Amino acid sequence: MPKIQFTYGNENKTVEAETGKTILQVAQANSIPMISACGGMGICTTCMCMIEKNPENLEPATPAEKNMGLDGKINRLGCQARIKGATSVFL
């Protein structure tokens, strides 16, 4: 399983993630504080995060992300970005 490093506040936490899960799903499953006001529908931007390393290890940006003008590499919606491999995320 790929390892995902989360940086939030003054903390760093590295967890294993199942391929195909979203960053939001992995964060919530590991008690990492990531907000999602719309419940993961990709319409509110509260789960926006910055990909610090290996953006290529995420599935390409979704139409919801593209409609919001996100580049699909550095700035992603945690509820839309699906994991393919190890990466590092800043919340």
Q: What can you tell me about this protein's structure?
A:
With 91 residues, the chain is of the alpha+beta class. A five-stranded mixed beta sheet has the order 2-1-5-3-4, covered by helices on one side. It has two helices and five strands. The radius of gyration is 12 Å and the shape is globular. The chain has a single domain, classed as Roll (Ubiquitin-like (UB roll)).
Topology:
Layout: E1 3-8, E2 11-16, H1 23-29, E3 48-53, H2 63-67, E4 75-77, E5 87-90
Parallel strand pairs: 1-5
Antiparallel strand pairs: 1-2, 3-4, 3-5
For this entry, give a set of tags.
91 residues; 2 helices; single chain; 5-stranded mixed beta sheet; Ubiquitin-like (UB roll); alpha+beta
